[in-house]
Fold this sequence. Notes:
Blueprint: H1 11-17, H2 20-23, E1 32-40, E2 52-56, E3 59-64, E4 72-79, E5 82-87, E6 99-104, E7 110-113, E8 122-128, E9 137-144, E10 149-155, E11 164-169, E12 172-178, E13 183-187, E14 194-203, E15 213-219, E16 224-225, E17 231-234, E18 241-246, E19 251-258, E20 263-267, E21 276-279, E22 282-286, E23 293-301, E24 304-312
Parallel strand pairs: 16-24
Antiparallel strand pairs: 1-4, 1-6, 2-3, 2-5, 5-8, 6-7, 9-10, 10-13, 11-12, 11-14, 14-15, 17-18, 18-22, 19-20, 19-23, 21-22, 23-24
Amino acid sequence: MKKFATFLISATLLATSVNLSAQTEKNQTDGCQFRFVLEDLAGFGWGTGPGIKITVDGVEYGFVTLPWGTPSAEETLLLPSGEIHFLWPDGVGFNSNRHYFEIYNSFDELIYTSPEELPDFLFFTYQNECPECLPVSNFEGIYNSELKQVNLSWVAPESEYVTGFDIFRNGVLLARLDSTINSFSSQTDTLETGDYKYCVVPVYPYICDLEEKCFETYINNVGIKNYSFDLLLYPNPANNELRITNYELRITNVEIYDVFGRKVGEKFPFNVLKGWTAKPDGIVINISHLPAGVYIVKIFTDQGEVVEKIIKQ
């Protein structure tokens, strides 16, 4: 099942020091992600011995190191609430001219920087209290084929830490909403026919391992056609102008959408709006005001609709 966040643990951690049976005794969904920034100032890596050993309430949870030949890296580890001990292993010397690291908590706050020396190998203790990560509830999705619109609604989790909601479509972030909003609508008339998955994920100021609440639907835009021989949209990529050349189709309107489905330009009739000029050999559209990115151009003709993707440089 797809998760909201993926946590990466080094191969060394997986192969050597993680006590998997101990981890199963903890509720990992209530864990906090800790980020380790590791560096070898000499540029070679720490080798097989030096590293950071992690225990929570006396239970060993992992060993983070910088493999030989890797001058720098970042590792993340999900740890539950409790008293965390970060240790440098007994018998392994610490060289401040080589071993440099930083530790960040789940709020991405720097909680420790490697010192000049490590006395008695126990170098840092941290009391970890993970706020509970809760998903949305009463989630509902509806596709209105007549209005060509997907409507989502939900009830926010009872948590003071929720800062907003992320809306994803087929794994791509569609919008980030304020924490006071509990519904979202998205037009689908610019989409190609196919299967679509819309998901809502609450946003916390710390990393959560949350299951997504999703709505899946099939969108059939049968009115969208491709008149590749009759209509030419160029240049692509474009800078300041787009040109539409048509030989057999009568164009009645043109609309431009960003990747989030928001209309950012419309032209009808051709001779009214500034920047949209009708010429004998086609139509010139001024797009100099649009930021660089990917856009959807929807062209209405007397025989149907044409949808093309363009890149604005």
